[in-house]
Amino acid sequence: MAFQFGNTQSTGLFGTQNQKSKDIEVTSPPDDSISSIAFSPASVPLTFLVAGSWDNKVRCWEIQNSGQTIPKAEQMHTGPVLDVAWHDDGTKVFTASADKQAKMWDLNSNQSIQVAQHEGPIKVVQWIKAPNYSCVMTGSWDKTLKFWDTRQAQPMLSLHLPERCYCADVLYPMAVVGTADKNVLIYQLENQPSEYKRMESPLKYQLRCVSIFKDMKKNLPTGFALGSIEGRCAIQFVQAQNPKDNFTFKCHRSNEASTYYQDIYAVNSIAFHPEHGTLATAGSDGKFSFWDKDSRTKLKTSDQMEQPITCCSFDAKGQIFGYAVSYDWSKGHEFFSTQKKNQIFLRANANEELRPRNRKR
């Protein structure tokens, strides 16, 4: 089903809904674990959400002011969809799959075409919009990072990675890629993408996610947050003025009274609020938490969901926090249940909940 972008301006978030009411559940969710969600960019007057999942599909919903979610369209890969990303003009979505392809989905025509190919599953896809070029960035388990002009069959640039690509984020003019063996590579994207810095993750175990943050005053990317399977996050500045500016903190761990053990869960996703610069983490414990990295404080922790939270994201205005609830296989096949459905929830008062406590309104 194809759809056209409307030109109705948003007048209010979820109408007059009580801010403290239950989070809104997205209708017609994916049939398997949800790998990635992303909201439409600010260039789109309406709000849309796309999600990629292990049922080989990518889906799109329109989010109305009332909070109602309307399924609009879907597309297929021949393998699980591992990542999704929007074009900056909001008319196209890029999808990365375990079938070793990345596709560009034109939402107006509901047609998708292959725009990238790797020798292994493609774990991440990002759109780069630079003053002098634009391209799709793909990172794969074949240990390469490739940059594609969507009009050409061959990559405009291919860079070797030290290990399999596990996670990546782009906020022009910076890209950060995390790989197996705890490698973190920072790229500058001006003129042409090139490696700027390579480091080892300050976390002890396997990386799961990365998200770039910016200097809110200068509005430029200045560092990134890393999440790992050990229930810990790292805040890392690219050029720290003081080594103590870089730090790690524990999260997504049980609060057991026993001194003998503590349940530790993977940090599956990290997202920064576009206005406040505070962040959300989502974990295998089925909880999300909001944090203020500058004051190093926790703002909120959610109730526990029935399944892990696999990914999370903020809309372009920072008013909606979206998160996906589905099994991440962190406890093995014996904990998988067909009775538990996959869900995506929308939380409407993110702008207030993510506001730093020490900042005046």
From TrEMBL:
UniProt-listed Gene3D superfamilies: YVTN repeat-like/Quinoprotein amine dehydrogenase (2.130.10.10)
Domain of life the protein comes from: Eukaryota
Stretch list, region Disordered: 1-31
Pfam families reported in the protein's UniProt record: WD40
Repeat (WD) residue spans along the chain: 27-71, 74-115, 115-158, 267-301
Compartment(s): Cytoplasm; Nucleus
Biological process terms in GO annotation: cell division
Family indicated by similarity: Belongs to the WD repeat rae1 family.
Record-given protein name: mRNA export factor
Protein source organism: Holothuria leucospilota
